[in-house]
Design a protein that fits this description.
With 173 residues, the chain is α+β, with helices and mostly antiparallel strands. The chain has two domains: 33 residues, no CATH class; 127 residues, Alpha-Beta Complex (endopeptidase fold (from Nostoc punctiforme)), CATH 3.90.1720.10. The protein contains four helices and ten strands; from the N terminus they run ββααββααββββββ. A six-stranded antiparallel beta sheet has the order 5-10-6-7-8-9. A two-stranded antiparallel ribbon has the order 1-2. Helix 2 crosses helix 3. The longest helix is centred in the middle third of the chain and has 13 residues. The radius of gyration is 17 Å and the shape is globular.
Length: 173
């Protein structure tokens, strides 16, 4: 969690805090709000189901990769993630891999769950260059890349060195 003008709350306290007032600035900030991370996101009002996400995701397997494409016939990596979350869960993700990386809380590899995003950087973390959707507990993802939309291991020798992190987008049943 980032400090707010010198005030920092740990993640286990954010649910118990409702508002922090900064009298010298006359500012009120909800402790559980993340304006810099949620401006481009929206949540589905009903329960989000992994089965909905994976069902739609599997229907995209074999489709072609086109840089900048957002579906439904061709995709780039972040176009695929954006399309899947919007159409399966009614959750709007930002457009690029970098903005998706910036938008959500990060989790460790040991806490990754199906439905989370896995991000890659080809320049040591200076930029986020690729994203995939984790689809199983055995390090599998579905992503859109030069071989099209495929299922593969993100721990494969050609992906693992480039893993920049993981993000939890939404809770899934």
């Amino acid at each position: 969690m980032k400090p707010i003008q010198g005030i920092q709350a740990t993640s286990n306290h954010t649910r118990t805090l409702s508002t922090i007032s900064l009298k010298q600035k006359g500012q009120q900030i909800k402790a559980d709000s993340k304006p810099e991370k949620t401006a481009a996101t929206s949540d589905k009002t009903s329960t989000a189901k992994y089965s909905d996400l994976i069902s739609l995701l599997k229907k995209q397997l074999g489709k072609s990769y086109v840089y900048g494409a957002v579906g439904p016939d061709t995709f780039d990596c972040s176009g695929l993630t954006q399309y899947i979350f919007k159409n399966a869960l009614n959750k709007t993700l930002p457009r690029t891999a970098q903005t998706q990386y910036n938008a959500f809380d990060h989790v460790s590899h040991s806490n990754v769950k199906p439905g989370d995003l896995v991000f890659f950087s080809y320049n040591g973390g200076a930029t986020i260059d690729h994203v995939g959707i984790v689809v199983s507990g055995d390090n599998q993802m579905i992503d859109a890349q030069d071989r099209g939309v495929i299922k593969e291991s993100y721990m494969a020798s050609y992906w693992k060195p480039y893993i920049a992190g993981y993000a939890h987008v939404t809770d899934l049943d």
